[in-house]
Amino acid sequence: MGRSKEFEESVVLQKAMELFWEQGYEKTSLSDLVEHMGIHRRSLYDTFGDKHTLFLKAINLFGEFINSRLKSEISRAETAKQAIQFIFDFVIEGNEDRPLGCLFVNSATELAPRDKDVNEKTKEAFMQAEHLLAELIRKGQQTGEFTCDYDAELVAETLNNTLLGIRVLARTSASKDKLHRIADFSLAILNK
Question: Are 43 and 84 contacting, i.e. CB atoms less than 8 angstroms apart?
Answer without folding.
Answer: no
